[in-house]
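Appendix B. Raw example, untouched.
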Amino acid sequence: MKKIQILGTGCPKCKKLAEFAEETAKELGIEYEIEKVTKINDIMKFGVMVTPALVIDGEVKSVGKSPTIEQLKEMLKWEISGK
């Protein structure tokens, strides 16, 4: 099961990233869990200073922007294949 974390305080871009991540994981048929990390101290533990940020299985994949659905597909496919 993939652990997808959305780092952000709840801004519109953070919400859109969460929507895109969930939609993409469902489309790819991935078992996943989405966690929204909203507390600044918790976000900073990832070394992230700009949100939104995307973390997949503990690894920061995107910072300061919301990737497109196509970019998310590539990130998740990459994670599935273990490359």
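End of appendix B.
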